[in-house]
Design a protein that fits this description.
Layout: E1 4-5, H1 16-22, H2 24-27, H3 38-58, E2 65-68, H4 71-85, E3 92-96, H5 101-113, E4 117-121, H6 131-137, E5 142-146, H7 160-170, E6 173-177, E7 196-200, E8 211-215, H8 230-233, H9 241-256, H10 258-279, E9 283-285, E10 296-301, H11 306-315, E11 318-319, H12 335-339, H13 344-347, E12 350-354, H14 361-380, H15 383-389
Helix pairs in contact: 1-9, 3-9, 4-5, 6-7, 10-14, 11-14
Length: 390
């Protein structure tokens, strides 16, 4: 059976070149980088070069990069760490209603614990938060603004540079969860006035279980894991050197070909958007029509459940999603779509198709061939569709 992978917002294939770069650090340069011998120095060199590579991609200093276990860990590290370090100033944190659950659930837990007071900014119909909203929400006791760079479900790109400028003007720290953005669109922490940024390797053809955190020099951030001096005393534990080397190699390759890859995916994305709209009635494109990631297509398909669409697509060899992979087991509709004003009924019928630079036009043609009959078959069985027709 033919297989097409269109769930790249959930995770991506590890490039062969990345696997090749990692292999020596499993069997040849396997020393602990904190030890004092030649084996350790070999491992440390890989760690040091990786840090420089990530810093160059983000336009920051290598000493401002901390390696983590992924995006969720990085978000937790920032939110809890900043709340603790700046508690004398206040406990007010600003975020958006459409953040990844790594941010939302952490902040909700912090509210229950009494260590944070959170303002959840609403979004417009496209999933956008404005710099004006952030400015209006900032208070004297605001210690952090955390707004994602690009939404993982609908692909909307936030006005990060403008929000960063507002935060810098008001003397408030600005964190962005850039897990969906880094490696796909330009990210410059200096130009964009970003103080803290999280990223994850598996979103840009690197290995799972490894990420990085940018912390601007001068920002106070306590240790998230204690028990050793690794990662500048911020995250104890022997570093995952093979994974970190893989992260850096994947990011290096992404940066090298970013512009051409983005343009190619943009063409495929728009072909898919137009193809679905023209062949399937009663659909709604979710997310901003222009300010969106080049690889993201998200549609609400009325009168049927998103899970049913996914199962039928899978039977035809097509891997897709109905939203965030972190909540795929939930029966609740997407909090992102509900925040954008969609009804529960419409939000339940969401379909997310996300591409990579390895996606081909032939695969998009296959999806456009297979999807319309699936939708019609499911609607024919749907009492909601029959009621809608009446």
């Amino acid at each position: 059976m033919r297989r097409v992978y269109l769930d790249n917002a959930a995770t991506t294939m590890v490039r062969p070149e990345v696997v090749e770069a990692m292999l020596p650090y499993f069997s040849e340069f396997y020393g602990n980088p904190s030890s004092l011998h030649s084996y350790a120095r070999d491992a440390y060199r890989g760690l040091d070069e990786a840090r420089k590579t990530v810093a160059e991609a983000l336009n920051c200093r290598s000493e401002e990069i901390i390696f983590t276990g992924g995006g969720s860990e990085g978000d937790n590290m920032v939110l809890r760490g900043i709340a603790h370090a700046y508690r004398k100033k206040g406990r007010h944190i600003i975020t958006s209603a459409v953040e990844h659950h790594a941010v939302l659930h952490t902040l909700q837990a912090m509210e229950r614990e009494g260590i944070a007071e959170v303002s959840y900014l609403p979004v417009d119909e496209y999933g956008l938060v404005t710099a004006g909203q952030v400015l209006e929400a900032i208070r004297p006791d605001t210690v952090l603004v955390s707004i994602m760079f690009a939404n993982n479900e609908v692909g909307t790109i936030m006005p990060v540079e403008e929000i960063g400028a507002v935060c810098r003007e008001k003397g408030v720290l600005f964190h962005t969860d850039a897990v969906q953005a880094v490696g796909h669109i330009p990210v410059d922490v200096q130009r964009m006035n970003i103080d803290l940024l999280t990223l994850a390797a598996h979103k840009f053809h690197g290995p799972k279980g490894v990420g990085a955190l940018y912390v601007k020099k001068g920002v106070r951030l306590p240790a998230f894991i204690v028990g050793g001096g690794q990662e500048r005393n911020k995250r104890a534990g022997t570093e995952n050197v093979p994974g970190i080397v893989g992260l850096a190699k994947a990011l290096s390759l992404q940066m090298e070909h970013m512009e051409e890859n983005a343009q190619r995916m943009l063409c495929l994305r728009d072909k898919l958007i137009v193809g679905i709209k023209s062949s399937i009635p009663d659909v709604k494109l979710n997310g901003h029509p222009k300010l969106r990631l080049p690889n993201n297509v998200n549609y609400s398909i009325r009168f049927i459940e998103g899970e049913s669409i996914l199962l039928m697509l899978d039977l035809n060899g097509i891997a897709a999603s109905s939203g965030s992979a972190c909540t795929s087991g939930s029966l609740d509709p997407s909090h992102v779509l509900l925040s954008m004003g969609l009804t529960h009924e419409v939000a339940h019928g969401s379909l997310r198709l996300t591409m990579s630079e390895f996606t081909t036009e032939d695969e998009i043609d296959y999806v456009l061939e297979v999807l319309p009959p699936i939708i019609q078959r499911l609607r024919d069985m749907s009492p909601l569709y029959k009621k809608g027709e009446e």
